[in-house]
Each structure stands twice: as structure tokens, then as C-alpha cells.
Amino acid sequence: MGVEIKIEHLTKSFGKQLIWNDVTLTMPAGEICVMLGPSGTGKSVMLKTLIGLLKPDRGSVIIEGTDIANCSEKDLYEIRKLFGVLFQDGAMFGSMNLFDNVAFPLREHTKKSESEIKRIVLEKMDLVGLIGAEYKLPGEISGGMRKRAGLARALVLDPEILLIDEPDSGLDPVRTSFINQLFVDLNAQINATFMIVTHDIHSVRVVPDQIGLLYHKHLAMFGPREMLLSSDEPVVRQFLNAQTVGPIGMSEEKDATELEAEKDMDLPPLPPIPLQLETSNGIPRKSQRPPGEWCRLNGVTPPPGSFRADSILSASAAKSSD
């Protein structure tokens, strides 16, 4: 079962360059969380801080009662055993075949026998659809297969927290859809807490339980998927709906002249909120909420056409007619 991650007043800078300031959020145990933001807003820095590779200037990251931002190296080593990490490119050792790459954490951090290691490795490779490719080298397979091999390696120690950095990077839309389905199915099976950093808006609209947005050196918003997808907060609305009207420009922020020119423009309507991606077997995940529940409980009227099977197509049609 996943564990809760509680971040309080987290601040990080490199020299005089502030990355983000006073970030506070709670990632519920066992839920899929996504962190978004324009390029350069410190999303990958956030992942490295969560696992203790970078120390924040101020604030705390509390996991199972331990503040990993301020704990001893011994305590940090123990807490890290809860984590699995999928890096952007899979981070495979080029001279090792996929079996040995996936087996590496078991050989490095456990005293399991080779027969037990083989059983675990093949189980995890089967989980990500790589049975039959065990003895291929990373250079002999596609980018999507390397990511799945990296995911299998991240799973071999049965993590309770899975950090995933840009899983769609370098993948075509079809492979991105497959890996999204894989994340949802994995979350249902292992109940780990997922934190995914991505730029893929379609993935963000259908996969997570919680969404966060980093912008202009702070956390603009973090909360349930429906809260952000129905939000009129300018930067949240602009980013999640891939719109040009709003405070984000080609650089992180638009200048005053650009904003002045937009002040009388009508914003396009919010697209329908799509149904959340289901597991392959159709059995709801423990953290999955009924469609529209957050909106109903909070008195929010969702955009027309929300929570229907054709909501994505409706949104595309509305965009093309504008």
C-alpha cells in the first residue's frame, strides 16, 4: 500500500536563482498524482527533492513520520527503500541486457538468491509486457520498451512510492496511451503512491487522481483532477486546456503589453471533463472516485458534456469549430 507524502513550505534555490518558494501540498496514499508546469519551473527538481537527492533551503518532506529534508543519512537510506524511480530515458546500463538491468537493484540492495532474483525479475518484466526480451540490450529496443524496462526495474523492490519523470518523452501518441494504461493498471495492482511529471495534456486529463501546477516560482494549485479541470484560475485554465490566452507566453510569463492586448478578449469555453481512464479489467482502483463526485460535493457546475464517453471527441470538435 502506498504512503502519504506531506510537503510543507518547501523552498529551493540554486545560488541566487529561486526555483520555487513555499510549496505546500499533500499527496494522498495510493493515489496517482501529476505535477505540471511550463519548462524550467523545477518539476524534475521537485522529484529529486522528494527522494532526498537535493536538499531544500527551507521546509519539510514528511514520509511515514520522517522529515527527509532534515533527517540523518541513515534514516534517509531507510526511507529511500520505499521509492522506485522511472527516469526520462529509462537510464539503462548500455552494456547489460534487460534482465540484468532489472535485476541490478536486487543484486545491489538485497541478499536474495539468483533463483529468487530470476523469479522476481521475470514477474516484473511480465507485468510491463517484456517477457521474451530479457536478453536484448537497451540499444536493440525501442524507446518505449526502454521505458517499460526502466519501469520494471523501478518495481523490483516493491516500492510504496513511484516517481516517474516525463514518461511520454520521445513516445508517439499510441505508445503514450499504452504507458498511461500501464500506470493505471499498476496503481490498481500495487496501490503505490504515484508522482508523475509530464507535459502531455491528454494524459493529465484522463490519468491522475490529483493534479499540481508549478508556475512563476510557486505552486499555483494542487488538488483533485476535477477541481483543476473545472478551474477558472487563469494560469491553470490556460495550461490544462492548451490555450494561448492567459498569463503564460513563449517565455514563462507574458509582458504587460501582451496582457493588455488580451484583456478584452473572450476566453474559449472550458472543454468537457473526460471520464478518468479505467483499469483494463474495469475494476475501479481504490483511489478512483465516481465521475463528477468532486463537482457535486463542492457545488461546481462542470463544463457541458463532461463525464461522457465521447467527452474527448466533443472537446476536439468544439476546439476545431472556434
From TrEMBL:
Biased amino acid composition, Polar residues: 313-322
Single GO term (MF): ATP hydrolysis activity
Ranges annotated as spanning the membrane: none
Pfam families in the cross-refs: ABC_tran
InterPro entries given in the database record: AAA+_ATPase, ABC_transporter-like_ATP-bd, ABC_transporter-like_CS, P-loop_NTPase
Domain ABC transporter: start-end pairs: 5-241
Segments for region (Disordered): 264-322
Protein name per the record: ABC transporter ATP-binding protein
